[in-house]
Amino acid sequence: MSELGSYSTWNITGTYRGVPCVAAIENMSHFDADGKSHYPFGKGLGSEVVKQFGIPNLFDFPIRPTLSASGDRGVPEVVADPLGEVSKTFQELGICVVQQCAKIHQQGMFEVQVVRILLKLTAYHN
To answer: Alpha-carbon distance 122 to 8, whole Å?
Structure first.
């Protein structure tokens, strides 16, 4: 894990100490081209984070121009392509969050967070 990536992750998870984290989201983790997945910011940061912090679930979203463009047009990709990869990932994330929150609620804990892993590039610009 790069020093910058590590710093971003520590800032995110350290902010909410004591609050259960049900999922990590690795945004803009890869893009698909020529039948292969490419990881311009490196591969495995999300896996390291969930392992290091004991986060039970990891989701990743691709770099996809249509994803941001559809939101800019006011028609999110989950509406424009409800059976697509991004829609399926959002559905899985939603199900995960509901199930994990119910589990935490049954254990008597009430506050829950979802951590979004910032990519090195995003962290660099902040």
So the answer is: 9
